[in-house]
Please model this.
Amino acid sequence: MEQRENKHLRLPFDREEAARLKAGDYVYLSGTIYTARDAAHKRMHETLQKGGDLPFAIKDNVIYYMGPSPAREGRPIGSAGPTTASRMDRYTPTLLDMGLRGMIGKGRRSEAVAEAIVRNQAVYFAAVGGAGALLSRAIVSSEVIAYDDLGTEAIRRLEIKDFPVIVVIDCEGNNLYDTAILQYAEKAAVKI
Model:
């Protein structure tokens, strides 16, 4: 696989900045992101269907699919590992069409989401699953801003510094999961 240099990105970010990111890039994110999982996405969808407003400005922002564990003393948040992104796929194209610029999760996305990423010049980032305690070290502050009744699935505003992610689907539709499999197969075939 082609070696890429590490990139640093300040959030929120726009279409032009998204266009500079390529599948396979290692990126350190700093700034503001929002957490939302299944229940929060369902509630946001219902709110939009009723003509209501979302609890935060979606344009150029990033949603992290994560529900944290309780914070230890002196820490803003507990373990903060990614949730499987495909569980939000039915709601994601609408949010992308509203201006959502990025998502952080783990695992593959549907074809509809991949198409919406390209259509809206957005990016899907992956965070390392199973590394929630390490990822939480990059979270400077955490505040519940909506749907407190959902507990760990409430929407939080996080301030992050050098949060490590990998670009999985870039705004041109390149998908690291697909290209990595092909590159691995090519290398494996050579060694046989």
Observations:
- The chain has a mean pLDDT of 91.
